[in-house]
Design a protein that fits this description.
Layout (H helix, E strand, L loop, with lengths): L7 H17 L1 E7 L4 E5 L2 H5 L12 H7 L5 H9 L6 E9 L5 E12 L5 E10 L1 H23 L5 E3 L5 E4 L3 H5 L3 H4 L7
Antiparallel strand pairs: 1-2, 1-5, 3-4, 4-5, 6-7
Length: about 190
């Protein structure tokens, strides 16, 4: 007696998942807390951390900690010790790849407990969010430059809503019109 199954659908599904992880720059892992070792890491983790599999054939806890940015190390350690880690956490922090490149990663992690309530395993995902973090930083810097120019420029700048009321007036309105910005905000520009 024997059973034969066609595994081609399962294989195709696994290949789709691998491709999706590569495209999204997402990796997943399982970590055995008792033995202090990763029991599973997807191949994408090596790409995210910039690791050559010939040099680093195994992804270990020691390797992970050696790559965490020194300025973020305490923050990452605190999330492991904090009560909030009991079920799930999300944390964005930096790593330093072996080539020196700094990468921002977002880690989502869930804790698995045994029947006695002891932490035995964590599972999670790691995603390279460097592009997003750098875009957010550039936007903040641009916003700060714009605000500085508006507040310190020679021209009076105001924003008037669709009903004709000032919603914003630059501080130099005092030199131009003799009023304070606070006095004009909420006033009708047409009256």
């Amino acid at each position: 007696y024997s059973v034969v199954r066609d595994a081609s659908d399962k294989y195709k599904t696994e290949q789709r998942l691998i491709k999706a992880q590569e495209m999204a720059r997402v990796a997943n892992y399982e970590f055995d807390v008792i033995d202090n070792r990763y029991t599973y890491v997807s191949d994408t983790i090596f790409e995210i951390f910039g690791l050559n599999r010939e040099i680093y054939p195994e992804y270990t806890s020691e390797l992970f900690w050696s790559l965490v940015h020194p300025d973020d190390s305490n923050m990452v350690k605190q999330t492991l010790a904090a009560p909030a880690h009991q079920f799930s956490t999300t944390l964005t922090f930096r790593i330093v790849r072996p080539n020196g490149e700094v990468v921002y990663i977002k880690r989502n992690r869930e804790a698995i407990y045994d029947k006695e309530g002891r932490l035995v395993k964590t599972i999670g995902t790691i995603q390279d969010v460097s592009d997003l973090v750098r875009s957010e930083q550039a936007l903040r810097e641009s916003d700060e430059r714009f605000r500085f120019l508006v507040q310190h420029g020679n021209e009076m700048i105001a924003i008037i809503n669709e009903d004709g009321f000032y919603t914003f007036v630059s501080n130099n309105v005092t030199q131009v019109l003799g009023y304070t910005a606070e006095k004009l905000v909420g006033q009708n520009a047409m009256s």
